[in-house]
Amino acid sequence: xxxxxxxxxxxxxxxxxxxxxxxxxxxxxxxxxxxxxxxxxxxxxxxxxxxxxxxxxxxxxxxxxxxxxxxxxxxxxxxxxxxxxxxxxxxxxxxxxxxxxxxxxxxxxxxxxxxxxxxxxxxxxxxxxxxxxxxxxxxxxxxxxxxxxxxxxxxxxxxxxxxxxxxxxxxxxxxxxxxxxxxxxxxxxxxxxxxxxxxxxxxxxxxxxxxxxxxxxxxxxxxxxxxxxxxxxxxxxxxxxxxxxxxxxxxxxxxxxxxxxxxxxxxxxxxxxxxxxxxxxxxxxxxxxxxxxxxxxxxxxxxxxxxxxxxxxxxxxxxxxxxxxxxxxxxxxxxxxxxxxxxxxxxxxxxxxxxxxxxxxxxxxxxxxxxxxxxxxxxxxxxxxxxxxxxxxxxxxxx
Length: 399
Hints:
It contains 15 helices and 17 strands. By secondary structure, it is of the alpha/beta class. The protein has a six-stranded parallel sheet with strand order 5-6-4-1-7-8. The protein has a six-stranded parallel sheet with strand order 11-10-9-15-16-17, sandwiched between helices. A hairpin with an 8-residue loop joins β12 and β13. α9 packs across α10 and α12 crosses α13. It is elongated.
């Protein structure tokens, strides 16, 4: 995949419209987690070092085309200034007179933050007139919000088709990592897909069985597959109406040459609570009155063996109820094995999805993975094989 990077644009002395993700958690008007803000700093600094003047575009929450003061980006400014180490000029509009005057008055080292783009109906409608109004403020466009790239909005897709466009540093890292994982990976490739429901990841599973060599299925999803194969799963979480679909996926994987790995032993309990009494049973010995809450040690050993024989790993979803002990053991052990192989240079590991990031942080290995995406829906849609409008616009801009 080819796309422009900041270095490919001539932005010296020019205003650069920069789409970033500032949709951060807040409590009483104070940012409680600055991760997304911290991640845009390299892009803003790179634009400045190239002589460009960054004008930041972002959304916050879902105001549905109306001005909602509790969703104003003004409240983000203190955290943004702290991360960037300089003053940020907030403008109460994203288009029109106030925005035009603020941009016209920009000095060489200034940074501007325009108001929430979703205060305007034209944003989510990708209205050409609204996109043109935004584009008129700058001479180039940089998209650093991969997390919003699955949306065809004016600030994520429309502007990219009106101005010279490039990926920001975070977007660049995301695209390079995902291309290394699924686009042109080092083989063999293994994917770990966990979570509660097969139904929410049908497209993902259908795409992966044709792209990877091994597919590890965990969590409640694994219970549905075990049930489909005739195993007893007791009172476990499962989608009993999805067993035919599970069998279809197994059949599709076999035809594609993808080996699916299901649990061979189970951690079961009669209560779902922290430190509940539990048993480890072979997969064929689950009792009718228990719940499967984690993958057992033999399963983790088998998964580790797969990791050791692969070159690339994609991970989305935990193996069990990782939120509470002792049912976090399977996810922790498998994650630690992947982290060790990554540190040793034997595995390229890419992970993403809300529960996945939380699970890897809990296992203490997030910093050891090659790349962890915080993009959520965009990461999932990429794994499903869908075209992301914000990315497609950047690829087209390169052409």
